[in-house]
Structure formats: C-alpha cells, structure tokens
C-alpha cells in the first residue's frame, strides 16, 4: 500500500458506473511482456466481437459509464466512418455533437488535453492512446497507427465546457471494422507483474465493484526502484482498462501528484472496475523522453 495517498488533484471522472456492491477481490494478473500490439498468435479466441453499439440511452444525467454507447446524456460520438484500412496508418474523423445536434467545439482541458482517444481491438490487443486535433467546425481527426483485421472500438473522453453537459465527463465509443481475416489473441493469463522495455511493473491492491479503491503500481528496473519517471499528461503514469467480452472502458485516476522529473517508484491510483471478469490494464509512463506502455490483465472475481 502506498503511503502517499493524496486526494485526487484531477477531477475524478465517474467513468465507471457503480454496479454491484459486492466486494471483489482482485487478483492482479500480468501478461507476458506484451505492450499491447496485436500480433496474432493461434489459440482460443479471447472473446466474441462486439459489433453493435448497445444503446445506453436513458441513463440520464450520469453521462459517463462504461463507454460502450455512442450517445449519452444528449452527447454523441458521431462519425461517417465504419471501416478503416488494415495494415496502414489511418485517420478517423468524428464530431462530438451536443443535445442540439451540432458539433461541440468547447471542451475543458483534462490531463493537458481537450479530448483523449483510445483504440482497442475486440480481443483487447492493439491499444492506442492518441490526441486528435480539432478543426474550427468541431471535426476531430484521430491519427491511428496500423490496425489489424477485425473489430475495433474507438473511445473518446471529454468534458464540454458549456451547455447541459458542462463539467460532465463523458466517455463514448463507436466500433469500426478493419477488413481481412480476423485472428484473435487469447488474453494473457493472470499475474502480478509484467515487464516492458526493461522496466518491471508490479501491481498491488484490492478492489470493490463500483468503488474507488487504491491500486499501487511499482516500477523497478534491474531490481532497483525507478525514480526518474517524467510527467506524462500531468501524471507519472496514465492507466486505462478495458473489460474482456464487451470492451468496457475505465480510466484509473492517479492520486500521486506529478511534481517534476523524479517520479516513482510507487504510484497510486483510484481503481474503479465495476464489472467482474478480466480487465486488460494499459499503464503508460515516460522516462528520458520515451513513452512506455505496459499491459497487464487483472481478474475481478
Ligand atoms: Cu490522452
């Protein structure tokens, strides 16, 4: 457990709907050293693809949630694009429309950006976290690295700075199809640590469904504590999670303040994972100007 458990300095998104109240012990699981890029290996398909966007309208003012809807609280992630090419970089264009149906152009900056964008394949490989640019008319362009064949879910998280959604944190998503022959990768098995780029990431913590519980990430290298983490998006590490089966999204907010290029080795997060099952966690942290992405599977029973 980390002792530096500070109140979150960033607004805490209600990114995960509180579902069951039962306590969930979390077995922290690690994968191999996958950094999330989906080179396919044979094996059982990790999951069935989620092709349609289930409607989650009617959730009322609680606009956030698991992010599986394209529309919530009157706001819509709108795009004419349902297909993206395989094996090459591509741009995904979209707008965020408000209750009046018009593109929203005013957003509150969160973790240095007006909008955060994620791509994840249905088998929870291929994680991408990018920051699209917005044209004056509210059209966003997300630059995506090469995608593999299959179904991908694309998430946008944002906070309108005016209108009925002002100050509300939204996470919306749509799916796109990448043509070709899909090959799923089985979700890596549970473990408590993983290694990426020579860094060992270890997780400790216990979670309860729908409630914020501390999750501590400890980063070491060659057995020694890492203390030169650089701020990335105003934090020492950025942690997102996706639920196996439906691809539900969670952003785990840091409770360790970033105060210079000497972060680490222990970082604390509010972990809110509302659903039981396996979640794939993607931890992004920066050292010496290089961004590292560690992927770890967490089992919530
Ligand atoms: Cu971001």
Automatic annotation (TrEMBL):
Superkingdom of origin organism: Bacteria
Entry keyword set: Signal
Disordered: annotated segments: 35-55
Range of residues in the leader sequence: 1-29
Name the UniProt record assigns to this protein: YtkA-like domain-containing protein
């Amino acid at each position: 457990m980390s002792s530096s458990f500070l109140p979150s300095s960033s607004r805490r998104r209600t990114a995960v709907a509180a579902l069951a109240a039962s306590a969930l012990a979390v077995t922290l699981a690690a994968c191999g050293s996958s950094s999330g890029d989906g080179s396919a290996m044979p094996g059982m398909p990790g999951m069935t693809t989620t092709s349609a966007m289930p409607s989650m309208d009617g959730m009322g003012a609680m606009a956030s949630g698991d992010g599986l809807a394209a529309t919530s609280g009157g706001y819509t992630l709108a795009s004419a694009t349902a297909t993206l090419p395989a094996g090459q970089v591509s741009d995904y264009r979209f707008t965020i429309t408000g209750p009046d149906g018009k593109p929203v152009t005013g957003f509150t900056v969160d973790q240095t950006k007006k909008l955060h964008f994620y791509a994840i394949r249905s088998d929870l490989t291929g994680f991408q976290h990018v920051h699209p640019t917005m044209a004056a008319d509210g059209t966003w362009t997300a630059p995506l690295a090469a995608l593999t064949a299959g179904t991908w879910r694309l998430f946008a998280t944002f906070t309108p700075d005016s209108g009925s959604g002002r100050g509300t944190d939204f996470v919306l998503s749509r799916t796109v199809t990448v043509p070709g022959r899909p090959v799923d990768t089985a979700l890596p098995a549970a473990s408590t640590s993983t290694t990426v780029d020579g860094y060992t990431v270890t997780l400790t913590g216990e979670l309860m469904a729908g409630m914020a519980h501390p999750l501590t990430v400890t980063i070491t290298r060659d057995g020694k504590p890492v203390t030169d983490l650089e701020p990335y998006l105003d934090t020492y590490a950025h942690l997102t999670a996706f639920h196996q089966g439906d691809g539900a999204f969670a952003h785990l907010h840091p409770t360790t303040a970033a105060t210079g290029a000497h972060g680490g080795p222990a970082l604390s997060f509010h972990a809110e994972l509302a659903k039981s099952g396996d979640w794939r966690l993607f931890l992004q942290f920066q050292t010496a100007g290089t961004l590292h992405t560690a992927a770890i599977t967490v089992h919530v029973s």
